UniProtKB/TrEMBL annotation:
Record-given protein name: Protein phosphatase 1 regulatory subunit 37
Annotated source species: Macrostomum lignano
Name of one Pfam family that matches: LRR_6
Gene3D superfamilies linked to this entry: Ribonuclease Inhibitor
Keywords recorded for this protein, A-Z: Leucine-rich repeat, Repeat
Annotated region described as Disordered, given as residue ranges: 457-505, 555-580, 596-672
Keyword Nuclease: no
Bias kind Polar residues: ranges: 596-632
Family label: Belongs to the PPP1R37 family.
Length: 672
């Protein structure tokens, strides 16, 4: 046995030696021209969609149904007949297959539709998709980029392979921005396959996971995947039976995903502890450039004990615009605890406190916040016990407040046994509150119209100023050297060599272009960025520069334009300086090298000074100062429209985002 092993080892060594000897052989490859013998164009997924008519679309769908042995759905035929492909080839609004009970063969027949038409929304809610039909559907959506929004809610028979295909579709379909998966319970095996596409490279903006068993470990897996996600803006996690411990995962989500704009966790059981965790995440977003803009905590068993944490987060947060605390037992005591945060907050626009057991004492505290709030747009106080005293406080606050445009109150009269005419007083107060809200709405509309008009005028003025500025920009003309006359009438120094003036002007002929000064032709408009200042060590003992702009620059037509020199708006660096009075400037602050300082000292020791050269320098310096001042005023007039636009833009963004965030206040009660 030992001899056999030794023989096998010798054979292996001999084989290794043979391989070593064979590796010395040379390998040649064909030339580049002969490597590629041909090529094919990639297939066009929408090749059959060009110049397609409605009749051809309907006939193609019917033929596909016949080929797959299924009957075409009448509801789909009605939708296809309403599509006019001759009018527009853009995406159509919706194709609805809701409640149609589709199997794999019927889904395969839909490919003839996706070949020819693209949609904004595909609705397959409660359509009975199983694993095979879901895989076929996801594959077609990925290949044809069929939709921007996909709804496959309440399809509970999709297995692990289906979710893996869904993850691939989400990753490779850049047009898909919204997917609705509510009502599909996800297991611990399917949730990792789904969220794998949400890490890097995802383009998904909105994710619906309501009633999907996103709690505990599943929530942790989702939050971990979203830590490096930069595209998701809206995450809806309602009705997932979350507990207070899940608040830690949500707080981690807010800390590590600042790009998330809306979080909806309504109808869970986060309680006071979970709410406090979420507020810690909001508190830590105070210093970031972006953060959560809308938070829905409707019906989460929250009491007044969580309000100090909410108040602390509101006091420092600069991103939150919508907060819905409805259907929680906050009470008037919780409103008093929330008051300090509301007074210090300057970004909250919408506050929902429906069915929070708020009485007149809480209404008085909210009235104090309204009187001091310059930005709150809507306050929801429906289904609370606010009577005459609370209505009086709200009316007085609205007489001072100019921003609130919607205050939701109960229209029915609250009984007050201690008052005889409570019905008349409450009715009159409700009418007065409505009138004040109408006044605020009218003022808001007028203000918005004025801002739009002012912005339009500023844009027109900016265009006119920029066009005039392009004609008045200075042209660079190098100054001519002024020789110093000696007693003999020659421009020479004691050594007999040609002498240069002892001031800071020098001709461009004596400075080499690569490392002294970059000049431009006379027909080119010169800006500050085109001027590069340096020193030529080989130019002589007194080398230095002075850039002189003439009083007027002449163009090719012989017309003289006003000369202006732009002043740099950025901080001075080591190789830049502010153009101004050069003759009297302190050169020690310019960070001049030692060789340059020595040159300046030697030039200062020379006894010869020419009066004409000194006069030229003073005139040029004064001219530079006047032109610099004139240009600075012109730059301020140009920059003013941009400042006004930055003021008007947040108001427009707030008004544009208002309809979507208003739904977070109104629709929360539907799911309670």
């Amino acid at each position: 046995m030992t001899e056999t092993i030794e023989v096998m080892a010798d054979d292996l060594l001999n084989n290794d030696c043979n391989v070593t000897r064979s590796s010395s052989r040379k390998v040649t490859f064909p030339t580049d021209e002969s490597i590629v013998s041909g090529y094919m164009d990639p297939p066009d997924p929408w090749g059959k969609g060009y110049n397609c008519t409605t009749e051809e679309l309907v006939c193609a769908y019917k033929a596909a149904c016949d080929a797959n042995g299924v009957q075409p759905h009448r509801h789909l035929l009605e939708q296809l007949q309403g599509i006019d492909l001759s009018v527009c080839n853009d995406r159509y609004e919706m194709l609805s297959c809701r409640n149609l009970r589709l199997d794999s063969r019927q889904v395969e027949a839909l490919e003839e539709i996706f070949k020819r038409v693209q949609f904004k929304t595909l609705d397959f809610e409660s359509s009975g998709l199983d694993e095979d039909s879901a895989i076929a559907l996801f594959d077609m959506i990925e290949y044809y980029e069929s939709c921007c929004k996909l709804n496959i809610a309440h399809n509970t028979r999709i297995g692990l392979r289906g979710w893996q295909m869904c993850s691939r579709m989400l990753k490779k379909t850049p047009c898909l921005q919204t997917i609705d998966l509510h009502g599909i319970p996800l297991s611990e095996q399917s949730i990792p396959a789904l969220v794998r596409s949400l890490r890097i490279g995802s383009t998904l903006v909105t994710l619906h996971l309501e009633h999907s068993n996103i709690t505990g470990r599943n929530l942790l897996i989702l939050v971990t995947a979203l830590r490096i996600n930069e595209s998701l803006r809206e995450l809806l996690l309602a009705d997932n039976k979350m507990t207070s411990s899940d608040g830690q995962h949500l707080a981690s989500l807010l800390r590590n995903t600042p790009t998330l704009q809306m979080l909806d966790v309504r109808n869970n059981a986060l309680q006071d502890t979970g709410c406090a965790y979420i507020c810690e995440g909001l508190y830590e977003q105070q210093g970031g450039e972006c953060g959560l803009a809308a938070l829905v905590l409707w019906h989460n068993q929250i009491s007044h004990e969580a309000m100090p944490a909410v108040s602390a987060a509101l006091a420092v947060n600069r991103h939150l615009q919508t907060l819905n605390l409805g259907h929680n037992l906050i009470g008037s005591e919780g409103v008093h605890l929330l008051r300090e945060g509301l007074l210090r907050n300057r970004t909250l626009l919408r506050l929902g406190l429906q069915w929070c057991r708020i009485a007149c004492e809480g209404a008085v505290a909210l009235a104090e916040c309204l009187a001091e709030s310059p930005q709150l747009l809507r306050l929801d106080l429906r289904d609370n016990q606010i009577r005459t005293a609370g209505l009086i406080a709200l009316k007085l606050a609205l007489s001072v407040n100019k921003s609130l445009t919607r205050l939701d109150l109960d229209k029915d009269i609250k009984k007050e046994p201690s008052m005889k005419d409570y019905a008349e007083q409450q009715g009159a107060l409700l009418e007065a509150i409505g009138a004040l809200l109408q006044r605020n709405r009218a003022q808001a509309r007028d203000k918005e119209l004025r801002q739009l008009d002012e912005q339009q005028r500023l844009m027109e003025r900016e265009e006119e100023t920029s066009s005039q500025d392009s004609l008045q920009r200075p042209r660079f003309v190098p100054p001519q050297p002024s020789p110093i006359a000696t007693d003999d009438g020659d421009a020479s120094n004691d050594d007999g060599a040609p002498s240069r003036p002892a001031d800071l002007s020098v001709s461009t002929a004596e400075v080499s272009a690569p490392f002294a000064c970059v000049t431009s032709p006379t027909d080119r408009v010169l800006g500050v960025e085109d001027i590069v200042v340096g020193f030529n060590a080989a130019a002589g003992a007194n080398a230095s520069l002075l850039l002189v702009a003439p009083a007027a620059a002449t163009n090719s037509d012989g017309d003289a334009g006003a000369s202006a020199l732009a002043t740099p708006q950025h901080p001075l660096s080591n190789d830049q300086f502010e153009i101004g009075s050069v003759g009297d400037a302190d050169l020690s602050s310019l960070n001049i090298p030692e060789s340059t300082a020595q040159l300046q000292d030697e030039s200062a020791d020379q006894p010869h000074q020419n009066e004409s050269t000194t006069q030229l320098q003073d005139d040029s310096t004064a001219q530079l100062q006047d032109e610099s001042i004139a240009q600075s005023h012109q730059d301020e007039s140009i920059a003013q429209p941009h400042q006004d636009e930055s003021i008007a833009q947040p108001l427009q963004d707030a008004s544009a985002a208002q309809p979507h965030q208003e739904e977070l206040i109104d629709s929360a009660q539907v799911h309670s």
